[in-house]
Design brief:
Blueprint: H1 2-26, H2 37-64, H3 68-79, H4 90-105, H5 110-178, H6 182-211, H7 213-266, H8 277-283, H9 302-308, E1 322-326, E2 345-349, E3 358-363, E4 366-371, E5 375-377
Antiparallel strand pairs: 1-2, 1-5, 2-3, 3-4
Helix pairs in contact: 1-5, 2-5, 4-5, 5-6, 5-7
C-alpha cells in the first residue's frame, strides 16, 4: 500500500512538472528543446499521410456504399467482430422487380420479354457490383484501415512519449539553471544526463517509425493499383453487359422496323374500295420516317427475291434513301455484307423480302448487307 501511494505521488509530481514546463513554454517563459529540421519534416509528412488517408478511406466507403445507415451497420458489425450479413444490391433488387412484373404482364408479350432481358442484365450488373465492392474492400480499404488503426496508433503513442521526454529534459535544464548549491547542481546535472539519454533513445525510436511512412506509401501505392484494376474490370463487365443488352433490344427493334418496311412495300398495291374506320384513324396520324424500299419484282415472290438479288447489283430506290450512323465496328462475314466502322455515316435502304434484322448499306462505291442493330437510323 505504501509503495502504491509513493508511486502515485511520484507520478503526480512528474505530471505537475510537465504541466508547468508546457505552460511556461506556451507563455514564452521557458526554453524549449527544438527537434532538427529533418525530424520536423518527418513529423509533417506523417501527419499529412494520416489526414489524407482518413479522407480517402471515408470517401471510398461512400463510393462503395452510398447509404449512410448501411455504412453504420457495417461499422458496428466490424467492431463487434461479426460477419456482415449479405445485402442485395440495387441492381439485383431491380432485376427481381422486373422479373416479377414480366410474369404478371405475361413473359410472352413484347413488354414482358424485354423486362426479362433487362432484368437479367440488371442482375448481372448487381453481381458485378458486389464483386467489385468485395474486392475493393479487401485490397484497398483494409490496408488503409490497418495503417490508421495499427501503425498510426503506434506512431502517435511514441510521439506522446517523446513529447513527455522532451518536457522532462527541459524541466531538468530549468532546475539546473536555478540550482545554487554545489550539491544541488550535481544532482541536477546527473538527472539531466539521465533525461537526455532517455530523450535521445525515444527520439531514435520515433524517427525509425516516422521513416517507415515511406514503406507505407509504397504499400498504399500497390493497393491503389489493385483498386484501379478492380474498378476497370467492373466497368468493363458493365459495358459488355449493356452492349449485349443493347444488341438484344436492337434485334427486337428490328421487328418493329420490319413492320414498317412491309407497310411501305404493300403501299404500292391498289387501295381497297372501302376504307374501314381504323384505317381512316391511322391515316390521320403524323407520318413516321421509314426506310425507302426497292419495288418488288413482278412475278417473283419476296422470299425468292432475297435469294435471287445480289446486294451489289441492286440500285437505290428512286424514292430516296436514309442516312445511318454506325454504332459499333462490324466485320463482314462474306462478300454480300459490308464491313462497318464505329461512328461512320452510311446510306441505307431495304429490299423486299429481306430479313428484318438487315438492310442494304452503301459507302461510296461499296455496297452490302448491314445489321440493323449496329445502326442508328437518322431521319
Amino acid at each position: 500500500m505504501d509503495f502504491n501511494v509513493k508511486k502515485l505521488a511520484s507520478d503526480a509530481g512528474v505530471f505537475f512538472s510537465r504541466a508547468v514546463q508546457f505552460t511556461e513554454e506556451k507563455l514564452g517563459q521557458a526554453e524549449k528543446t527544438e527537434l532538427d529540421a529533418h525530424f520536423e519534416n518527418l513529423l509533417a509528412r506523417a501527419d499529412c499521410t494520416k489526414n489524407w488517408t482518413e479522407k480517402i478511406l471515408r470517401q471510398t466507403e461512400v463510393l462503395l456504399q452510398p447509404n449512410p445507415s448501411a455504412r453504420v451497420e457495417e461499422f458496428l458489425y466490424e467492431k463487434l467482430d461479426r460477419k456482415v450479413p449479405s445485402r442485395v444490391t440495387n441492381g439485383e433488387l431491380l432485376a427481381q422487380y422486373m422479373t416479377e412484373a414480366a410474369n404478371d404482364f405475361g413473359p410472352g408479350t413484347p413488354y414482358g420479354k424485354t423486362l426479362i432481358k433487362v432484368g437479367e442484365t440488371q442482375r448481372r450488373l448487381g453481381a458485378a457490383e458486389r464483386d467489385f465492392i468485395h474486392s475493393a474492400s479487401i485490397n484497398f480499404l483494409t490496408p488503409l484501415r490497418n495503417f490508421l488503426e495499427g501503425d498510426w496508433r503506434t506512431i502517435s503513442k511514441e510521439r506522446r512519449i517523446l513529447q513527455n521526454r522532451r518536457l522532462d529534459l527541459d524541466a531538468c535544464k530549468a532546475r539546473l539553471k536555478k540550482a545554487k548549491a554545489a550539491e544541488a547542481k550535481a544532482a541536477a546535472e546527473h538527472e539531466l544526463r539521465l533525461t537526455q539519454t532517455e530523450f535521445d533513445r525515444q527520439a531514435e525510436v520515433t524517427r525509425l517509425l516516422l521513416e517507415g511512412i515511406s514503406s507505407t506509401h509504397v504499400n498504399h501505392l500497390r493497393c491503389l493499383h489493385e483498386f484501379v484494376e478492380s474498378q476497370t474490370n467492373y466497368y468493363a463487365h458493365c459495358y459488355q453487359y449493356m452492349l449485349d443488352l443493347q444488341k438484344q433490344l436492337g434485334s427486337s427493334k428490328g421487328e418493329i422496323f420490319s413492320g414498317t418496311f412491309v407497310g411501305n412495300a404493300e403501299s404500292t398495291s391498289p387501295p381497297p374500295a372501302a376504307t374501314s374506320p381504323p384505317a381512316v384513324a391511322a391515316a390521320t396520324l403524323p407520318a413516321v420516317p421509314t426506310i425507302p424500299v426497292v419495288p418488288t419484282i413482278v412475278g417473283v415472290p419476296n422470299t425468292v427475291a432475297e435469294s435471287v438479288l445480289n446486294p451489289n447489283e441492286v440500285k437505290p430506290p428512286a424514292s430516296g434513301t436514309r442516312k445511318a450512323r454506325v454504332l459499333y465496328d462490324y466485320e463482314a462475314a462474306d462478300s454480300t455484307e459490308l464491313a462497318l466502322l464505329a461512328d461512320e455515316m452510311i446510306t441505307v435502304y431495304s429490299l423486299p423480302g429481306m430479313d428484318p434484322d438487315w438492310l442494304i448499306g452503301e459507302r461510296g462505291n461499296q455496297k452490302g448487307k448491314v445489321p440493323v442493330t449496329y445502326l442508328e437510323l437518322l431521319s
